Amino acid sequence: MGKEIIxxxxxxxxxxxxxxxxxxxxxxxxxxxxxxxxxxGNFVPNISFGSPILEAIRPHTKLVFDxxxxxxxxxxxxxxxxDCADIxxxxxxxxxxxxxxxxxxxxxxxxxxxALNPSTPLDFIKYDLDNxxxxxxxxxxxxxxxQRFIPEMLPKIKELRNLAPEIDIQVDGGxxxxxGKLAVQAGANILVAGSYIFSGNYKNKINxxxx
Length: 211
Ligand SMILES: O=C(CO)[C@@H](O)[C@H](O)COP(=O)(O)O
Ligand SMILES: [Fe+2]
Prior knowledge:
Blueprint lengths: L5 E4 L9 H10 L4 E7 L11 H7 L6 E7 L16 E5 L6 H10 L3 E6 L17 E5 L14 H11 L4 E5 L4 H10 L3 E4 L1 H4 L3 H7 L3
Parallel strand pairs: 1-8, 2-3, 3-4, 4-5, 5-6, 6-7, 7-8
Bound molecules: 5-O-phosphono-D-xylulose (5SP) and fe (ii) ion (FE2).
The site of 5-O-phosphono-D-xylulose has 22 residues, from strand 2, strand 8 and helix 6.
């Protein structure tokens, strides 16, 4: 442990007909990041929202915009997020040349995250760790909110924490007060939670993740 816990509500589970209010509520109750799941219906079997929505909500909050790109060929799309994202996370599985994609995100002056699907080994990023700000360990298979946390990801988080003691480790998928605690004990310091937070009582839920 050691690093302060960052709580990142995932907008995917918010009321889409009331986004401005939803975002301002989680901000008021202590959220640190706003996690924004961009899905293209190709890399994952679902479509969510894209840069026009992010630009529309950007003026209404000071939260850090943590953009999780679940798109095939992210190099073609990254530029769309240059005016609204603070952190851009790409999936290691979505690009042929991960190191080039990392450099592209950085060329826009953004922090760069790399996400790994549950079955993707840490070896994929071993030689890029010094160039990455954050590693996102997916604790479900990407594409949908409301899935169950995969406990086999806990040793993966531990292994990464040993490999990179200072890096930000984000976990995403099935996070609640119980699974979040296990992830933090394993070494994670950024907790994404969608259905857990947006299912009600935002204040208690956000507080319950600040271990
Ligand atoms: O990236 C994803 C899903 O692919 C996530 O960010 C989900 O939005 C998390 O939702 P919950 O599992 O917390 O409901
Ligand atoms: Fe996500």
